[in-house]
Write a structure and sequence with these properties.
With about 130 residues, the protein is α+β, with helices and mostly antiparallel strands. The chain is built from five helices and four strands; from the N terminus they run αββββαααα.
């Protein structure tokens, strides 16, 4: 016989929700590591480190869907790239570039994508994001 799961429902006040949102935003702002990938906010690079090898992705080249895809497929061919490394890279690019919002909503290239990503990268560099 399967055990019953207990679900606790709780209503939160607007103040509590606001506090949770502020804390979550602060946690995300500090995120700089995804597996072996590390974000360098000052240089705007993602660096893969394994053993004594380093490989950098220049985020300034990720201001279009084609630029992001180029990096993904280029790195897919590397013999040292594991499936987990690829998932971590995609998660990092999703967090940093936010391509669904800035580059290609609903399967269409955004006319303002380059500007939106460049602005977002500057926000990362300055610590706003």
């Amino acid at each position: 016989m399967a055990a019953k799961k207990t679900v606790k429902n709780r209503a939160y006040s607007l103040g509590e929700l606001h506090t949770k949102a502020v804390r979550r935003k602060a946690e995300l702002r500090r995120k700089t590591k995804w597996g072996r990938w590390t974000l360098d906010r000052s240089e705007l690079t993602l660096t893969h480190t394994h053993d004594h090898h380093r490989y950098e992705v220049d985020l300034a080249e990720c201001t279009s869907s084609a630029g992001v895809l180029d990096w993904i497929f280029q790195l897919h061919e590397k013999t040292w790239m594991t499936p987990k490394d690829m998932r971590d890279l995609i998660e990092a690019l999703s967090y940093i570039v936010d391509p669904q919002k800035t580059l290609c909503s609903f399967g269409h290239e955004s006319a303002t994508g380059k500007t939106a990503v460049t602005s977002r990268l500057e926000d990362f560099r300055s610590g706003k994001l």
